[in-house]
Amino acid sequence: MEVKEKTTVVNEEEAESEINYRGIKAMPFIIGNETFEKLGAIGTLHNLQIYLTTFFNMKRITATTLLNVFNGTTNFATLLGAYFCDTYFGRYNTLGFGTIASFLGLLLITLTATFKKLHPPHCGADDSQCIGPTAGQMAFLLTGFGFMVVGAGSIRPCNLAFGADQFNPNTESGKRGIDSFFNWYFFTLTFAQMVSVTLVVYVQSDVSWPIGLAIPSIFMLVSCFLFYIGTKIYVKVKPEGSPLTSICQVLVVAYRKRSLKLAEQPWLNLFNYTPLKSINSKLPYTEQFRFLDKAAIKTPEDQIKSDGSAANPWRICSMQQVEEVKCVLRVIPIWAAAILYHVGEKQQYVVFQAMQSNRHLGSTTFQIPPATYAIFSMLSLSIWVPIYDRLVVPFLRRVTKKEGGITVLQRMGIGIFLTILESLVAAFVEQHRRNLAISRPTPGIHSKRGDVSPMSALWLVPQLSLAGLAEAFAAIGQVEFYYKQFPENMRSIAGSFFFCGMAAASYLNGFLISLVHRTTEGSSTGNWLPEDLNKGRLDYFYYLITALCVLNLCYFLVCAKWYRYKGTGSSIVAVEMEAREFDKPLV
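== Protein NRT1/PTR FAMILY 2.11 ==
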């Protein structure tokens, strides 16, 4: 046994020595690429509501629904991108392809604003004179959206995993480097968003749409150059084939053997084989989802090769394969809670609230663009993340003796709780804005969609700040949670899970808005979400979101208590399995 252990250690050390982890040295290229990619994408996406309603002459409900579908499709595309990445192309090639596709998408959207034939004519003073976009104009716009879907579907599931690949996960410095990378990644990402919603949005709204949309396209082009400049120093993990195949094998074999009975101590009798060259860490037996254990029951018909692997993986699976599937299944209930978190955190009517509020900066004539108010959400995140990473985590680490200070699920739970406060504050602020708009509208200022409230739009800052704090806890916590809890060969798919949650939230948000709009349109209280917010009850909609967030927190607490982290099996089982490994004869 001692000879076997020494041989294994030597092989692992040789494998590690072949990989030159550059860690921090690779970060300027990776984070630089991501920063400029977000400067390009966010610089366009944050102001699309304004662009579609004022430049493409769409109705608010139509533009909001279209963007919900676009965002949902974009985020669900990450699952497909992750599959191709982990199965065929690897993260490096997938990221390069996605960056180029995003640039082409932004270029097409820029052209819709540049050439008159690609957008409808401007509206007159009266909305009744507005002419909507033609089928050809919409087709050209949606083609640009399509390229952006392909680009985002390729970039989003890979960028975080690709950055984490640059650190050695088997050293203490590497592990801490990965944890800090997640925090600082979101910090630089938020910085890019802040530039987008201030400088870029200002140019788009107050200077020129063609110039304002050309700037993000240039940013995306810079992103392409930065990514390829660092090619020689990247650690490029090769794809190992589809990890989804292994999941399907476990499900199929478990179903075929559903009539078999498990032993009282199944971990002592199940087929146990781990490939020598697998990048996945060896997992202990866990007692959740025991029905899947039947996939590893060895029968007389099952044939085993001389190296210990199954001759037909569709007839018998290893206990390692079963535990990897359990890891994925355990994550799904937590992922479901993240859907409603995104619904509560992303308030899509904030831009329209700002449009019907007093946006003047003090007593000056300068008006802050409506989409720019999102900067306060990003500002709170940018301020909190360095404080949390450098001050709060080290303090909590000394108190709790945990590597991250608190567990990832605790971090996510705090973020979900903050969405309750955020939605509640949003309802109070909207009620105040609407009452003032009805009782004493601002004289001399009138929006095409309705009267402007004398309430300063800066009253939106508290809810936006809470949204930023919620994201600092829950969003970063989700990314870290998926990365660490998925099997190592599924980290791109793990990255896509975060965006799939956002996708489901976008569709759910669109469904809620459409449902509330249709249900309340003929009710006694009137339409909650009309074109003129002063004639609606957006505050009621926020109260509805608050109630959903409260239910979501209760659901999350139940799931968090049930959850078992990857690699934490029963201590008794672990001792018995170790003894079993020790008693194996040397080959």
